[in-house]
Structure formats: structure tokens, C-alpha cells
Amino acid sequence: MHPAFQGLITIVLGVGGCLGYFWLSNQFLDKVLFPARGKDIGKNINRANMIRPWLFLLPALLALGLYLAYPVFETLRLSLTDRVPIPGGGGAYTYEWVGGANYAQMMNEPKFWEAVRNNFFWLLVVPAMSTVFGLLVAQLTDRLSWGSIAKSIIFMPMAISFVGASVIWKLVYDFRPIEQEQIGILNALVVSLGGDPQTWLTVPFWNNFFLMIVLIWIQTGFAMVILSAALRGIPEETIEAAIVDGANPFQIFFRIKVPQIAGTILVVWTTITLTVLKVFDIVFAMTNGQWETQVLANYMYDKLFRAGDWGVGSASAMVIMLLVLPILVWNVRNARKEMR
């Protein structure tokens, strides 16, 4: 069967199944469970109306449970067990309870601490630089006649996948022997200035920053769009009053505009922080964690799918979740406060 036809059948069955579920569940609720007849007609209608919203929420709750809650608990279970092959079992496995042994093993591995250190550097650099550049571009293009074009160009990397961006920047950092022509933009520039080409992605410590540039390049567009909207939301009367009082452009920006959009800046910062904590594609595609560029998500991938160590791999996944969870909860609470 053609894949397009299979996809069409899946969509039809999915939509039809949802519509059928809603119709049948409401029929059962109104005709069988709480029929709108008899002496209790009023109570039945009220009871049905109390239950009805949950009928619409039930598919979403089941999907969240299946694709979100269950994987979390299963990962926690795997992190506390060891996957052992059954002798003569034809590739079958059994799981033995080991408690915190996987976490202890993970803590004793230098690669784990290398990943933690590199993630910390990413957290220091990427959210700060992306937010600063995004705010700077939003401010500089706010009053320009061609500002929309500039914003579109800067936002364009957001439409590229992380892997696609990694391939682009890998070509930028490409290295060829001295006797060959350099096709990498950076090395071509260095050679034109009389220098020697460098293997940029293999230089310890600095290669992490070369990888960070890729994510900054992508996330600056996101920060720019959000902060540009926040800047446009500042009342003109406030800025006009500051100008009348003799404030210069720098004072208006740092003392009037930035304090008023501080909440938005913090949301952008924390949103990018969540992306940084889960960064995987860029490191995997460009260095695969070699040359001291390992990060937590790539460490987890190596343990799960290369080493086949499901226990330590799941333990590292739990570490990533624990790092992400507080920031996620904080963002949700702030969003609810702003909605109120």
C-alpha cells in the first residue's frame, strides 16, 4: 500500500474514531447513565453536565498518561534495575533490581562529569547571548523602515532543524590540509589573512563555544520575535515623558524599556535554558561528544544505544528531567500569573 494512502487512512480512522467516541460517550451519558426523564430529570442533567467535560478530556489524559507519565515511571524503573541477558534465552532479557548502583556508576564516570561541566558552560553562555542579541536586534530594528526584512532574515534559522544547522556550520568550520584549498569559510578567512587552517572542532574547551554559536544563531531569532513584541507593548507616553525630561537613548533603553519588559526577558531566558539542558542534535551531528564536547543528552544516547547500558542511560535521563523540571514548573507558574 502506498505510504500516502496509509497516511490518509490513518487520518480518517483517527478523526472518525474521535468523533465516534464523543458521540457514543455523550449518548451513553444522556440516554443510559443519567437520562433526562423521570422525577430526577433536574439532578440527572446537572450530573451529566458535570461529567461531560471529563469525557472530552479523557482522550487527552490517556494520551498524556501513555506518552508522558508512563515513560517517566518506566525510565525511573529502568534506572534502578540492570538489564541482564537470559542464558539460552535467544536474546531475551531480564531486569535485576540494583537500587542506586547505576547512579553510583554514572557518578564515577569522567565522561558524565565532562557532560555536566559542558552543560553548565552552555547554560552560562547560550541563554545569555541569545537573549542579549535578540533584545539588541529587536531594539535596533524597531523603528527602521526595513526592520521587518532584517527580522525575517534573522528569524530564518528558526525554520532550520538543529541537524540542518549543524551541517551548515560544520561546513563553516571545515578543515583541509594546508596544501589544499579551504572550503570552510572560517579557515578560508584565516588563510587569506596569512594564518594556518585549524581543526576548530577538535580544539579542547574552545570547540564547545564553536558548538554554542550554532544554537545562539538559531535561538536569537526566537528571542528577537518575543522581545520585539514586548518592546512594542511599552506605552508611548512613558517614552515621550522620558524624552521631555531629557533622557538620552541609552537611558531610555536601560532605565525605561528594559525594566518594563524584565518579565518577558526572564521568560525568554528560561525557555532557551530548557532547550540548552536538552541539547543533543548539534553535538551529535558535529562532534558526537568527542574532543571533550560531551553533553548530558549525548551521554544518555551513548549509554542507551551504543553501550547498551539501559540502567546508566536511564539514570542520566532522570538527571536531565530533574534539571529541566524546576525551570518548567517556574515558567508555567509565571504564565498563569500573567494570565490572571
From TrEMBL:
The chain crosses the membrane at residues 6-24, 54-73, 120-141, 153-172, 209-231, 261-286, 310-332. Pfam families: BPD_transp_1. Its main location: membrane. Keywords: Cell membrane, Membrane, Transmembrane, Transmembrane helix, Transport. InterPro entries: ABC_transporter_permease, MetI-like, MetI-like_sf. It is a multi-pass membrane protein. The keyword Acetylation does not apply. Residues 116-331 form the ABC transmembrane type-1 domain. It is found in: Cell membrane. The keyword Transport applies. Belongs to the binding-protein-dependent transport system permease family. This is Alpha-glucoside ABC transporter permease. It comes from Sinisalibacter aestuarii. The gene is aglF.
